[in-house]
Structures are given as structure tokens and as C-alpha cells.
Design goal:
By secondary structure, the chain is an alpha/beta fold. The protein has three domains: 207 residues, 3-Layer(bba) Sandwich (FAD/NAD(P)-binding domain), CATH 3.50.50.60; 111 residues, 3-Layer(bba) Sandwich (FAD/NAD(P)-binding domain), CATH 3.50.50.60; 112 residues, Enolase-like, domain 1 (2-Layer Sandwich). Helices cover 34% and strands 21% of the residues. The strands form seven sheets. A five-stranded parallel beta sheet has the order 3-2-1-7-19. The protein has a five-stranded antiparallel beta sheet with strand order 20-21-24-23-22, sandwiched between helices. Strand 9, helix 7 and strand 10 form a beta-alpha-beta unit. Helix 3 packs across helix 7. The longest helix has 19 residues. The radius of gyration is 25 Å and the shape is globular. It starts with a strand and ends with a helix.
């Protein structure tokens, strides 16, 4: 087996295949661990942790705790970020994978034919080839952008001084997370988004996040299109027929990600692609029966945990010849801002477009959750979307640590559990996790306390 790319998906495939006795060659032209370890999940969450600590220190007085003046040592913040990377790196290291029996080649790979992959020093004929090359920051065709220095998530963590005024192009998860983090560390921040903030998510949930960003002092410009960029950087923005300029000290481009497929010569292998990545069937196999794709390269979503799930499916399919279905995966997604926004399945508007009136929506505010009240943080809510018969279509949670509470719904939807099974569990009190049971319980409330049920109770009470 040949694996191209040593990110989350590629490493999981390589480790599984090698430990099952296959000969595995792993090509990686960049850093072991890929984007997630070096430029994405790990460093960004370490930065967010520092920003959260600063924010909690500022906000402690609301709970009767007074602290002195809060100061930020940005060099130590970045030291923490890189220490987190260094602590996790051994898990993804070349030495570890060579210890598992994987032949690691630290060179760029390319297809020579439908089953031959080569680098500068090695040529391999393989029975199965897994493309796990991930994605990279998309760079929009804005006039002038190529003439000014700008940051992406791949260069941001090399900063040694705190930006005085950071302009963020893009109000998606990356732009929101990093924009809020830098604001809480002391930068002035402007987020410019051509459409709606966190446009993929439930609008009401995104509005909770937007309110907090503005409360933090971030200028959020939605419905605003960047039309030209000049040195400064200075961004020319059009909104509602008006033009204004935004000046900053640094510019962060966070408008999305593109699959990293250049240089692979996929055409020589007969592998078809589109703008999202390699075109795959439900088994993650490409138009070349020997070539599979996992993670961001497969164009089915850009999440580390999804790449890991893809890897598991590919190992089952290519080694054990078991049937798999990537189309059936229920993949949760989380924006790690404050408050966090987590969701799985269909949002309300998506569900209505598909199911029409055959829909029920339950809503529960964190303001009704005792733990949230005790902590003095009642921002946010949970939303459950089902059919009228109770089939779970999707869940959205927005609030403190919402990402830690979407796990229940990921299990429920993946395992096909029923709402009644959620209501029957005992949820420890007081926890924010109780909101899951409350949402499920609310679904039964109309039937449980209906006139019909009351008439039935009036009869049954005589036999109790």
C-alpha cells in the first residue's frame, strides 16, 4: 500500500495497514502530522486557551473575584502554542511510524501511471494507493492581494509580536476563532465577511456568537466584499452600495480551504477531480479502482475527525474487503469560539427544504439550565430537529463548551438511537450536558400532558 500524505487520515491508514502486516510506503513532502498538528487544530486551540485565560481574568469580577491588571506576554503565549505541538508531535513522528514498519519517504510524490507512484528517490508499484494530502488555505482573487504581505493559518503561528490591528478576511470558523483569540490577547480586530457570519450554521446560533464577538470589541462587517487591497494593509470594502477602507497592521486570509492536489499528476492515474477534491464513491474509491482518497482530499468535509473516520473505512475496505458507506457518516462540527457552536446533521432550514411540514423543532435555552445559572454564563441554547414521528435529523448547540456536549448526539445519530432512549438515561445534576435529555424530553411533552393522556390517567388511577 502507498499512502500519500502524513496528516490525520494518512497516518491512521498507514498505522493500521502496517500493524496488520502490509508493506506500506508513506510519502510526505512537509511536516509529519500535517496541517492539524502544525498549523491547524493543535496550535489554534492552544492559542484559544491562552485567550480564554485572559478573558476569564478580565471577567472574574462578575463572580465577585477581583484580579489585578491583566497583561499579555505574547512570546510566552506562542511558546505555549509551540510546546503543545512539540508534546503531541512524537505520536505523528517519522520514528514512531518507522517503528511500526512503515517506510517513510520525506519527499513529494506523484503518479507515474494508474498504479505507480514516484518521488525523487523512490518508485513504487502498489496494489492500493491512498491519497491523504489534506488541504491548504484558499487565496481569493482580490486585486492587490498578491502585492502585500498576508497571513494564513500556515504562517500565523510564526508571529513573534502581537498584531496591533488585525484584519481578518473571512467570517467562517477559522476567521472567527482566530479573530476572537487575538482580540482577547489585546489586538484590535476587524472581521470582513462577504455573506453572513458562520453562514453554514443555524442563523440564531450564529447570532449568539456574533453578539459575543461585538461585546469583545471586534468590528464585524457582514455582507461586505473586499474589492481591493493595497499596502498598509488597506482593504477596500463594498457594502450596501457604499465603499470604505479598513486599515490594519496585519492581514489574515481565512476565506476557506482548497484540496491540496497540485503536483500529484492525478490525470496520469485516471483519477477524476472537481473543485472539492477527488471524486469518490461511498467506499472512498476514486475513478481508478486502486486509488482511494481520505480526509480533505476526498472533498467530503474538512475535519480531522472525519479524516480519521475515513481512514477506518478505507482500512476495512481495502484490507478486509468489507462493505463501507462514507455517505452514511454522521459528522459533528464545532467552531471553537466563545461561546462554542456545535452541530450535527441537518439545520432547521436544511431540514425544512427536504422534509417540508413533516418537521418538529425543540428549543431549550441555557438560561433554564441550573449549572449555567450557577456559573453565571447562560448564553446560548440547544435545538433539536426531528420528523413528526421522532426521527432525529439534526442538533445545534451554542454555549459554553458546547463542543463537549455534541458527543451524545453524535452517538445517538450514528447508532440510530431513539429519543426515548435519551429520556431514559440518568443525566448527572447539575451539568450542562442535561440539555440533551431536556431537549429529548420536550419532544414528548405535548403528548404526555395532552387531554387524551389526562383522560387515560383519570381511568387508570382507579386501578393503581
Amino acid at each position: 500500500m502507498v499512502v500519500i500524505g502524513a496528516g490525520a487520515g494518512g497516518l491512521s491508514v498507514a498505522a493500521g495497514a502496517a500493524q496488520l502486516g502490509l508493506k506500506v510506503v508513506l510519502f510526505e513532502k512537509g511536516e509529519m502530522g500535517g496541517d492539524c498538528l502544525n498549523y491547524g487544530c493543535v496550535p489554534s486551540k492552544a492559542l484559544i486557551a491562552a485567550a480564554e485565560a485572559a478573558h476569564q481574568a478580565h471577567a472574574a469580577s462578575a463572580l465577585g473575584v477581583r484580579v489585578g491588571e491583566v497583561s499579555i506576554d505574547f512570546s510566552k503565549v506562542m511558546a505555549h502554542v509551540h510546546a503543545a505541538i512539540a508534546a503531541i508531535a512524537p505520536n505523528d513522528s517519522q520514528a514512531r511510524f518507522e517503528g511500526l514498519g512503515v517506510h517513510v519517504v520525506r519527499e513529494a510524490a506523484r503518479f507515474i501511471s494508474d498504479r505507480i507512484v514516484a518521488s525523487d528517490s523512490l518508485r513504487v508499484r502498489a496494489r492500493k494507493i491512498i491519497v491523504a494530502t489534506g488541504s491548504h488555505a484558499a487565496v481569493p482573487p482580490i486585486p492587490g492581494l498578491d502585492t502585500v504581505p498576508y497571513l494564513t493559518n500556515e504562517t500565523l503561528f510564526g508571529l513573534t509580536t502581537l498584531p496591533e490591528r488585525l484584519i481578518v478576511l473571512g467570517g467562517g470558523p477559522i476567521g472567527v476563532e482566530l479573530g476572537q483569540a487575538f482580540r482577547r490577547l489585546g489586538s484590535e480586530v476587524v472581521i470582513i465577511e462577504a455573506n453572513a457570519l458562520l453562514g453554514r450554521e443555524d442563523p440564531a446560533a450564529a447570532a449568539v456568537v456574533l453578539a459575543q464577538l461585538r461585546a469583545d470589541g471586534i468590528e464585524v462587517m457582514t455582507g461586505s466584499k473586499a474589492t481591493r487591497i493595497t499596502s498598509g494593509p488597506v482593504v477596500e470594502v463594498e457594502a450596501d452600495g457604499q465603499t470604505r477602507t479598513v486599515t490594519g497592521s496585519h492581514l489574515l486570509v481565512a476565506v476557506g480551504r482548497s484540496p491540496a492536489l497540485s503536483g500529484l499528476d492525478l490525470d496520469k492515474a485516471g483519477v477524476e477531480t472537481d473543485r472539492n477534491g477527488i471524486i469518490t464513491d461511498k467506499s472512498l474509491r476514486s475513478s481508478n479502482r486502486r486509488v482511494y482518497a481520505v480526509g480533505d482530499a476526498a472533498g467530503r468535509g474538512q475535519f480531522t475527525h472525519l479524516a480519521g473516520a475515513h481512514a477506518s473505512l478505507v482500512v476495512r475496505r481495502t484490507i478486509f474487503a468489507l462493505p463501507v458507506n462514507a455517505d452514511a457518516l454522521q459528522t459533528p462540527r464545532i467552531t471553537y469560539c466563545d461561546p462554542q457552536l456545535a452541530s450535527i446533521g441537518l439545520g432547521e432550514s436544511e431540514a425544512r427544504a427536504i422534509h417540508g411540514d413533516d418537521l418538529r423543532v425543540e428549543h431549550f435555552d441555557f438560561a433554564e439550565n441550573d449549572r449555567a445559572i450557577a456559573e453565571g454564563d447562560t448564553r446560548g441554547f440547544g435545538k433539536l430537529v426531528t420528523t413528526k414521528k421522532g426521527k432525529i435529523l439534526g442538533v445545534t448547540l451554542v454555549g459554553r463548551q458546547a463542543g463537549d456536549h455534541i458527543h451524545l448526539w453524535s452517538l445517538v445519530m450514528s447508532a440510530g438511537l431513539k429519543l426515548s432512549q435519551i429520556t431514559s438515561m440518568i443525566a448527572p445534576y447539575p451539568t450542562r450536558g442535561e440539555i440533551g435529555k431536556r431537549l429529548a424530553g420536550q419532544w414528548y411533552t405535548p403528548a404526555l400532558f395532552s387531554d387524551r393522556t389526562r383522560r387515560l390517567v383519570a381511568i387508570l388511577k382507579h386501578f393503581a
